[in-house]
Structures are given as structure tokens and as C-alpha cells.
Amino acid sequence: MNFNQNLNTITSRSIWNRITVFLLFFFFALNSNAQILEPVKWTSKIEKKGNNALLIFDAVIEKDWHMYSQFTPDGGPLALEITFKNQKGNYELVGKAKEGKTRTAFNDVFGVDETFFEGKAHIEQEIKIINPNLKTVDVDFDFQVCKEVCINSSKKFSISVPSTFKMDEVPALTEAKLDETKVTGLAIDTIKKEAAAQPKTETAQTAKEEIPASAPARSLWSIFFIAFISGFAALLTPCVFPMIPMTVSFFTKQSKSRAKGIRNAIFYGLSIIAIYVILGLIVTKIFGADALNALSTDVWFNLIFFVILVVFATSFLGAFEIMLPNSWANKADQQADKGGIVGILFMALALAIVSFSCTGPIVGTLLVDAASNGGIAPIVGMLGFSSALALPFMLFAMFPGWLNSLPKSGGWLNTVKVVLGFLELAFAFKFLSNADLVLQLHFLEREVFIAIWIAIFGALTLYLFGKITLPHDSPTHHISVGRLYLGLLTLVFTMYLIPGLWGAPLKLISAFPPPPTYSESPFGVGGSVNGVSSEAGKGMPEGAELGPHGIMVFHDYEDGLAYAKAINKPIMLDFTGYACVNCRKMENNVWSEPTILPILKNDVVLISLYVDDKRELPKEEQFTTEAGDKIITAGDKWTDFMISKYKTNTQPLYVITDLEANNLNASKPTISYVSADEYLKWLKEGISNFK
Asked: Which residues cross the membrane (predicted)?
């Protein structure tokens, strides 16, 4: 082979080697960026609404992910925050931003009802432009999106306002020019360098699809069932129960045939249903689905309904009667005397008015509860309640012989009413607790709430056993078997509540009291929970404190690293968030395992870094990345650390490192939301590789 051939061969190999290196680098870049998740894609537009402008934001959310609403209450996951950057002197907000369909569900980790979007999100904000020279409307969205992991993200919108956008012209529509999505505090410049990515400007596309309907807090079936049971309870009160034989006898005797009597009774029952459903429809129409949902986290809403429910409870207990004006009942009776279909309809209305002293508090409570669900929940609730109320009138008209089996009216009817009064009183404190949580006043902490419930249900127990009598009770020389059993049930429930004062989780009522963290002492009245004493936190190294299950934890990387070097143990980094649901689930369900907890306590130095920590860093520690992202808070700092070092923006994220910050797990350098078995295997591998 001559020199030229050798040269060609060498040159050819060099070219292929360069291509191979380039391809390897390219795939490495793709892989290094593969974990930077963006499950929410945003678009926006501006259009005219009368003399104002309407900003419209639409998002497509990847399957199985959900993004939290701005109406998710404090104490839960991070709610959506909307900031209008250039509002001053340019435009005014008209009301609060309105949201499309959301879903609300109880989160047993945080003990709150969380509201979130699934599939798609739709948000509208009306503004009044006061600066005719306004060029853009700059809006920042900060939000949290979760699946098995959570991501704290933000989106910057710069929406162009054309010069032709005047009050007296035809509606204008422009597409928004969006800045690229950024994750709060992330070192995107580092990611771009390592991934060889180029900055891109996203062009908005108008979202054309309708926002899909979502299920409310509880399913509509469960709301219907609870309301149906409440209607049955109302049926057993002194205001309604005696009306059953009287009304059925009227229809059967006044009708010319049994068939006509049955038809009239059925129409009577349907009229009762219609009256209450219309009431639910009116409530929904007046407030609107979004407003009802928003009210559930409003301080004044909760305080007002606390007072209302206390008044209802006091009425049920016998202090006074809540009655509608007698003139209403008289007018309804006069119309009922006319007979026919109209007369039957007014008979149903008369029943609703006359029985209001018993049914009103129950109806009010149901509507209050439905208000926190939004949507058509008030209508469904009234349908369930009225169905239970109307059903006996229809059934006994069809089978009048059943009337003989009805128990006689008596003192037991007032007992039902009093029991409902105690339940109303207990339920009222949930609303007071909501207001206290939102304001973070710590007046009604977990121990106080549980103590109040112990007092209420303890008093109910004494009442059922005949040790307490109330104004409208009939004198009795003995209690019935049914009342005895109910008394025993409330006694057991009262005893079940007592350990809650010492930190017991009380899972049966987890939806009602404040979460364990909202407490006078996280370690309970006795100073110890699950074998961990409050004394265990004393004498720990600087920067450390007791974390979940009594594990010593650092919240600053440098403090934890210094301690790990001092005792020569590997580090477990825990990138977490205060509002991260799955982080709490891992801590509660995986870290607590008997095979895992000793390892976390004894074999590693745990450093938990909260990416949603809103505390500002000292001015000298704040900085701006090359990409222009400002690192202002501690959460920004730890998110920047996580994404620049480990190429991901999800929580929970766990990493085991040596004292030089090198990963100790070869197969899986990082791990997230996994089973206890997988987590244990990963822990053991990392610790065994520590040198």
C-alpha cells in the first residue's frame, strides 16, 4: 500500500472517528436532558370583552399528571400563583382569575381538599387597560404538577397588545409571544451547555378543544348517598314523621279510586323533589360553580358558616325553633285547598315550609358541604335529600297497609333531632378549623379540635344514656334498646378520639381535624410518638433536627456534608418539597419500614433539601444564572443544585453520594417514588459501595 493509500485510509478513519464521537455526544446530550420533564404545555391569547380585554391561558397536561389550582387551600400542595408583572399604571384586574373545570379530592397526607386540573387547564383573567400605549401584558405562572413525582415550574407570558386594540373597534385577537418555560431557580444554562441545546422561542397556538368535565371532590354518587341518608334522618324528626300517615290518608280517602290516590301521592313526592332541586339550582346559579369552589377556602365563608351551623345545632338541641313566616304556610295552604295538580304542588310546598325548623338546618348543612365541591353538587345533594324525604309518601300510598307497621310518634322523634344537633355542632368546628388554618393563627390546633370533639361526643353519650335531658325531652323511666346501642357506639367513638391527644393518627376522621403538623406539639401531649421522644432532638450537631420518624436530618447541604465528613458516613440527598404529596407518602409508607428506618437513622447522613422553600437567601448569596434565572430563595438554590447536578426537576429524588459528591449507585444513580423493596435494595447497594 503506497503513501497516498495510507493517507486516504487514515483520513477516512479520522472522519469516521469524528462522526462516531459526534453521534455519541449527540445521544449523550439527548439522554442528559431526557429527565427534564415538561408535562404541561401552555398557549395563550388576548381578546376583547366589551370595553375590557380578556386574557386566556390554556394548558395541555400529559396523561396521569395533574396541576394544582389556585384554589388549593393552604397546608396542601402548592397552589397556582399568577403574577401580573407590569400591572401598575397599565391595566387593572377585573376580579380574580377564573378557572375551567377542576377536580377536588381529599388528600389524606396533608389532610386538606386539594383542587387540581387533569388533562387540560383553562384560565381567564379580565383586565381594564388604562394605558393606551401598552404594548404587552407580562404574566408569570408558578405552579406544581405531579404524578408519581412532583415538579415546581413556572411559565412567563408576554402577550402582545396591538395598537388597534381600542375600546370602540371590533374584537381583536392576537397570539401571545411566550418566553420559554423555566423551572423556578433552575440552572437552565448548565443544562443547555451539557445537552448542547439551543434556546427556543415557543409560539402560542390557540387551544380549540373544550375543557373536559371533571369529577368534583367526592363523586356525585357519594354526595347523593350522603344527602339521601340526611334526608332519611330528616324524615325521622318531629316535624316530618307525623305528616306521613296524615298525608297518605288524605290522598287515599279523597281520591275517587286507589289508582288515582297512588298517582296523586307520586306527584306529591315528585313535587317535593322538584322544590328542593330547584333550591339547589338557585344556589348554584347565584354563586356559580367556580365561586362555590373558591368560597370553600375563604376565611369569611368558613367563619360565617361556623356561626350558622352553631345556630342550627342550638335550635336542634331545643333552645328555640327556626321557622319561616307563618304567612308563607297560610298562603301555601290556601292554594292547596283548591285541589288538582296545582293544589298538590302547594301541599308539597306547605310541607317544606312547615317542616323547615327540622329540615332547614340539614338542608343548610348539605348546601354548605356541597359548596366546597362546586359544580352541580348542590343540585345532586338536594336530589338525594328530597328523594329520601319523598319516597315514604309514595310507597305508603301504594301500600297503605304498611302504615300499621310505623312506630308511634313520641319522644324518640325529639331524640333523633337532638342527635342531629350534636352532629351539627361537631361539624361546625370543621369550618372554624379551616379559617384558623388559612390564617395560621394556631388558635384551634389539632389537640384543641380533638378535645372539643371528645367533649361533644362525650355529652352525646351521656344524653343517650339518659344522664342529660334537654328542653323538649319526654320523661322516661328507661331507655330503648336502640338508644342503648347508639349510646354504646358514641361511647366507643369518644374513647377512640382520646389517644389523638397523644399523637394517634385517628384515620377514621382524618378529613376533619387539622393535620398532625398543625399541633401544639408534634410529639403529642405525652412528649413521644412512635417511640420518638421530644428529648431526642437535644444535643444534635449544628444544623440538624429531628425529621420524620425521629431521623436526624439536615436542611443545608454544607452543614450535612461537614457532619458526614466528621463521622465518615455516606450522604443521602433527599430533594423534596413541603407540598409534595408523594414525598410524604414515601416518608410515611417506605421510610417507616422496619428494614429501612434503622438504615436511615444509623448508616447515612440524611440531607433533605426543600425545592419549594420560599425563605429568601441573604443578599450576598443571591445570584443570577447565565440564562437569566434569579436564585433568590432557598428553594431556588436547591432546585438549581438538583437540575444542574442530576439532570432532573422532579421530587421526590433520592441520591446516595460519597464525601466527594460522587454517586454510589452504579445501576440507578438516583431513585424516586418506588416500592419499599426496591428502595431497600437501592439503599444497601449505595452504602456497600461507600469507601
From this structure: 220-244, 265-287, 299-320, 341-363, 375-399, 411-429, 449-470, 482-502
